[in-house]
Fold this protein.
Amino acid sequence: MTEEGLPPGTRAKLVATKEAWARDGRLLTGATAPPGQRLPPGQTLVKDWPVLDLGVQPDIGTEHFSLDVDGAVAHPLRLTWAAFLALPQSDSVSDMHCVTQWSRYDNHWQGVATAALIAAVSPKEEVRHVIFHSHDGYTTNVTLAQFAAPDAFLVHRWEGKPISRQHGGPVRVLIPRLYLWKSAKWVRRIEFSIVDRPGFWEVRGYHNNADPWLEERYG
Ligand SMILES: Nc1nc2c(c(=O)[nH]1)N[C@H]1C(S)=C(S)[C@@H](COP(=O)(O)O)O[C@H]1N2
Ligand SMILES: [Mo]
């Protein structure tokens, strides 16, 4: 993969560096976390919340917010901000694990549980994958089972405050038990799919499954 095909404004050097890490297997410890260990292998705890993205941070005010939830579903949705807030809201506490080696414990989130979204659209029986599309051109893919995890949310508040633009506000995906690149910021479309479609980092050497406890960083 080259710099061609990058979304407009993307920091090509940063993308090239992270592609090289994948080729070189950087940060791999080869360790496997014992069952039940909270911190995945090779991770270091941080207290702040680092910002990582392609270098473009779209400014999506809630008045312009629109989220499509579609694909192979019985009831596709286009959600305004009011419609998004009208979905069942819940609280959650979870950890974050970034492939660049930091983890942050006990984040307090508010948002819509993915189970509520799945119930609203009714994916067809053959659906096995969910693809996220973001306003900065970023994409990433997860399995329907990963998306349906009880701690997976579309979040809009962190530690009691609206999620900032730099962290993907007003609404981002949060799938805490996968490396954080699977948690799309500035999400504009959630596509339920019968076939898999590897996303931005997945086609650049990052692992399709991204389980931190199996150290699925690259592959
Ligand atoms: N839309 C979008 N989502 C994205 C990214 C991105 O570049 N664009 N980067 C991913 C990566 S690589 C990481 S580690 C996390 C970082 O989220 P944070 O900046 O809130 O820590 O967002 C993920 N989601
Ligand atoms: Mo990342």
Summary: The pocket of molybdenum atom (ligand 2) is lined by residues 52, 98-100, 180-181 (CB under 6 Å).
